[in-house]
Amino acid sequence: MGKVFIIAWKEFLATVATKAFILGLLLPPFFMTIAMVAMPLLMNKKSPTVYGHIAVIDKSGMVAPRIEEAFSLEKQQERRDQKAKEVKEVIDKGMQSVGVTGKTAEQMKQQMDASPAMAAQKMLAETRLTVEVLPPDTSVDEAKQAILKATGREQATDGNAARLALLVIPAETVKSTEIEDGRPVFKPYQLLTAPRLDIEVQKDIRGQANRAIVDSRLTDAGEDIAKIRGLMAAPTAEEKSVTATGETKINDVAKLLVPGAFMFLLWISVFSAGQYLLTSTIEEKSSRVMEVILSAVSPLQLMLGKIIGKGAVGLLILALFSGAGIAALIFFAMAELIAWQNLVLLFVYFMIAYVTVACLMASIGAAVNDITEAQSLMTPVMIILVIPMMLWMPIMRNPNSMFAQVCSFMPMINPFIMILRLAGSEPVPVWQIPASIAVGLLTVVFMCWASAKIFRIGVLMYGKPPNFTTLVRWVRMA
Predict the structure, then answer these.
(1) What 3-state DSSP class applies to 138?
(2) Model pTM?
(3) CA atoms of 340 and 319, how far apart (whole Å)
(4) DSSP class of residue 144?
C-alpha cells in the first residue's frame, strides 16, 4: 500500500499545487467580496433628476385634473418615498423568509445604508414633471411633434420644459358605449413618449394615467372610490409552521435552497475530482509516462493511487465550500437549518459518489489516447450526473414519495438523491439511510472490479479507441 499512497500524494500535489487550482478556489469568493463592497459604492450615486412635462389631450374632461394632481411635486415625492419604503419591506420579508431574525436582523438593518438594496433606493428615478393640458380638439400629430425635440435625458428645466410624453384619452376610455358579456367595453388610450425616457418614468406615467382613468370611471358610475379600492386590496396572510417547539415563520427560501445547495455541493466536488482524474490519466498515457510508472507499480496500484489522490482533491473542495456555507449560516443565525448528522452523511455519500464516478473516469482515461476520443465515452457518464439535477424539483417537493424512494436505491445516482432528501423538510425513514449506503457500497465494489480490468488492459493499448462493446469484452476476458 506504500506505493499506492505515494502515487496518491503525487496526484494530490499535482492538482492542488497548481496556480489554476488555487486561483479557482480563491477567485470566486474574492470577486464576490469585491462585488459586495464595490456595488454599494457604485450604486450610491444619485440617479439624475428627470425634468420635462406631460401633455394631455383629454376628450372626456374627467381625467386631466386627476393627472395634474398626481404629478404635483408633493405627489411625485410621495411616490418615491413609498417606493423606498417598499424596498425596505422587501428586505425585511427577504430576511424573514431565509430565517434571519433577532440580533442578526437588527445588525443588518443598522448597516442598511451601506447595502446594495438601500443604494438601489437612492437610484430610484427622481422626477420634476409638470402637466400641460391641451384643448380636446388639439391635433395629435401636431402635439407629438414637440416630443421629437426631447431626448428624455434633460437635466434642467426652464419656461419651455421638454415634452417627454403625450397622453391622448378618448371619451370612450372613461364612458363605455358598448356591453360585451355583461361587461362594459372601453376604448384604449394612447401614451406617446420620448425614445430615451427612463423606463421607470414611463411606468409611473402609465400607472398614474391608469389610476386616473379608473377613478374617473368609478366617479362616472357613482361609486365611492376609496371604498371600492379598499374592497379590491389584496389580502395578506401570516404564514407559520407548527413544530414541536411552537409556531415558527415559514422559511420558504431555505426549503428551496438548502437541499439544492447540498446536492450541488456534492455534485461539484465529485465532478471536479473526477474530471481531474480523467485529464491526468489521458495526459500520462498520451505522453507515455504511464509506461515508466507501470515499470515500478502494478496497474491496480496505479489506479487506486490516482483515485485516492484525486479523491483528496474533491474532499478538499467539499470541505472548503461546505465550511464557507456553514460559516455563513452561523453568521446569519441560521445554523439550525443544518443537522450535524447530515454533514457526516454528506461525507459518506461523497465517498460513494466519488469512487463510482472516479472508476468510470479512470476506465475512460485508460481506454483512450486523447481528450477528444473521450468525449463519446463521456456522454453516458454526463447523462448519469445530470439526472439528479433533473429530479431536484420533483423530489424536493415530495421527498418521501414512491418515486423518490425508488430513486434512492438506484445505483450511481442514489448518493445525490439521498443528500437531496436528507436536507429536505421531511424526515427520511431511518432504515433507508443504511440501505442506500449498502446499495452504494455494492455499486462501488462492482465499479472497482470492472474498472480495474479495463484499466489493466487499456492503459497500454494505443490506436483506435474502444467502444462500449469492446469495454464490456475487456471486463469479461480480463
Answers:
(1) coil
(2) 0.59
(3) 14
(4) H
Residue 376's pLDDT is 75
Q: Read out DSSP for 406-454?
A: HHTTSTTTHHHHHHHHHTSSSPPPTTHHHHHHHHHHHHHHHHHHHHHHH
Closest CA to 345 of 436, 439, 212: 436
Distance CA 422, CA 396 (A): 10
Residues 6+ apart with CB under 8 A from 470: none
Q: How high is the pLDDT of residue 116?
A: 43
- β partners of residue 294: none
Which residues lie across from 185 on neighbouring strands?
178
Task: Work out whether the CA dihedral 355, 357, 361, 363 comes out positive or negative.
Answer: positive
* Residue carrying C-alpha cell 480490468: 453
CB-based contact 196:153 (threshold 8 Å): yes
The mean pLDDT values, 10 residues at a time, for the chain of 478 residues are 82 81 73 62 63 91 93 88 75 57 54 47 70 92 86 60 90 86 88 86 92 92 86 76 56 59 80 86 82 81 87 84 68 56 81 89 85 79 82 79 88 87 78 91 91 83 76 76
Size (the chain), residues: 478
Q: Report the pLDDT value the prediction gives residue 302, as an integer from 0 to 100.
A: 86
Give the containing element (helix H, strand E) for 11.
helix 2-16
pLDDT at 475: 80
DSSP single-letter state for residue 288: T
Phi, psi dihedrals of residue 462, rounded to the nearest 5°:
-125, 165
The CA R_g of the chain, rounded to the nearest whole Å, is 33
Identify the three-state secondary structure at position 279. Answer: helix
Q: What is the DSSP string of 89-124?
A: HHHHHHHHHTT--HHHHHHHHHTGGGSHHHHHHHTS
Using CA atoms, how far apart are residues 140 and 35, in angstroms rounded to an integer? 48
Give pLDDT, residue 119: 47
Question: What secondary structure does DSSP assign to 292-351, as a single string?
Answer: HHHTTS-HHHHHHHHHHHHHHHHHHHHHHHHHHHHHHHHHTT-GGGS-HHHHHHHHHHHH
